[in-house]
Fold each of these.
Amino acid sequence: MNTINVINDTSIDIKEINDLKIFVDFSIKYLKLENIVFNVIVVDDKKSHAINKEYRNIDKSTDVIAFALEDDNTFIELDIRILGDIYISIETATRQANEYGHSLKRELLFLAIHGILHLLGYDHMTEEDEKKMVELQEMILNDYKNS
């Protein structure tokens, strides 16, 4: 059994929030994940900035931050995998959607799958790792679009 929460932690009415929930469920099924727990929390730039500064020592807002609990060797293995939290800034996502010329929905879905893959240990620190991550992101987004 999976427990995934998609939370709007802003005062902004986000009409795409249900689309985000549906896509997150699709992604979990696509990746054949079972017995997992994680949260997708949509925040504003102010909150994103505060999180980024406190935990990454970067003094600005960012689009997505993933806190992967399994990255730490001190996590306890259970029957349920508690993966962590993904924070998405709605304001940064909106700006990026406009810059890239696509919908806010598409940007939110991209940021969500990017965060999910980070929770699962994917990264983009090397060119080879980035290629794997980007390919998987695009496969999931394309399959969702065609479903």
Amino acid sequence: MPKTLARGVARLRGDAGFALPELLVSFSVLTIVLAGLATVLVSASRGEADLNSRFRAQESARLALTTLARELHCASGVAPTSGTTTAIALSLPAGCTTGTGTVTWCTVAHGTTYDLWRIPAGACTTATAGSRRLADGLSDPNVFAPDATVHGGAPVLPDVSLSLSVAGGKTPYRLTDTIYLRNGARR
């Protein structure tokens, strides 16, 4: 049997194990490595949760903007007629696919952010039957800027400028649009 092989076999048959200091050093190194990995995993998990909540808020804001645009296109009137505000009331004539009568869109405080509600009534009361929250996580309650005042010059349809700012993240996510009331009286 070669000499190297004989030494390897003798070492395997021996009773010698690890000394206590060697075990303590091994466990210390293992603990430090596992603590570093756990920190990375927890950080990644929190980042994913934050990303998912911002994505959900952005998606609900886009859906709300689409729904509101559909109602504004069909509306025949808007109140108030000017200024930046937290609520508008739309007059929906017969034939609108989303309903008829007065519909109120408003922002309501929800903790440190705001929710956008569609309420089939004249007041911004979320307890009204048929009320729906269409967007949440907004950072600014002043979403609406209607312009239905009479101007000199060529006749123009009334419009509402919208600005939905979603809270969270390093850079703000903002949806803006100006939507004309196609059934509104020209001014």
Amino acid sequence: MINDFNFWLTGTGWAAAFFSNERQNMRFEFSYLSDPLLELFEALTKLIKGQSDIEKITFLDEPGEHILIITRQKEDVIGVEITRSDTWDSMSEKYSTLGEKEIVYSDIDTLKNFASVVCAGIDNLLKRHTLSEYQEKWHLSAFPAEAYDKLKQVTTMT
């Protein structure tokens, strides 16, 4: 089970994500060329509402990417996998055969715990940065407050 998630703004247009459980830690940097927080909030909301059984969240690097894949295995049990590629495979179907995807993190968790740990990490982010500081550092995207509020709402309902 995941016991820690954190999202750090590391510079203008750059951030780092951190996932850990009792056996493994995964930290990676990525750029503002994707908006993974919005994708993550929307993905978790869909999974909690039962509108989806698999969601992929892309964290673009320059070059390369990490992809967080959350797969419902049964009712509230999910598989969590992070893959790494040296190319932007997710950007275009025609490039999907380029680059090797390496699994760099794998876990089994409950959807409720995973969403709760993600929300705790985001609450910590919001304690470190105001919304205007977030947008200034993240560059192209404002903090997805509406999507985060929806996620918190459905998380507390379960």
Amino acid sequence: MSTRHGDPAMAQRIPRRLRVARLIGELLSPPPILVVLALIVAWDSSPTPAMAILWGGIAALFASVLPYALILRGVRQGRLSDKNISVREQRIRFGVVAITSILIGLVLLAAFDAPAEMVALVASVAVGVACGWVITLWWKISVHAAIAAGAATVLLLIFGPALLAVWPLVAVIAWSRVQVGDHTTAQVLAGVALGVVVNATVFTLLR
């Protein structure tokens, strides 16, 4: 039985540091981060809880839930290597699908007069994913690091210096990606830089 299916003997031979890194990569992966971020921004920018659920739900659905569902389907059908799409060539193909989904969500938010902060958030995600996709044509930049740093940047812009407290999580996520062997240090640092620059620019301009 493979480690993936929970062989206790094999699991014991895996260093604890690696097991922790894998767990962090699962719990703090882009899909849950984007869902939580969308709901937080919606709650902060919407006039009523009902509207917050509506706008946050639309953003979360098209920026996170739908792309992740398509990833899981691709893994089940054998078209994608794993939930993190570790193979760079597969990331290139799937990136087009993800960008399309995010843009549909952005159009819906803009068309139905969502709060400016929600439009700015999804636009930031769209630009970030598009930039990451272009880089991935040549180099496997860390999407985990980019999304985490982008989310931390948005929270800092909205809520101020108190949200510097989330940045250690960005460092932990970056560490985990290197530990599991999915990225080099340079790739996670580039992801952090991409997330910060894109979100600080696009979100600030559009909010």
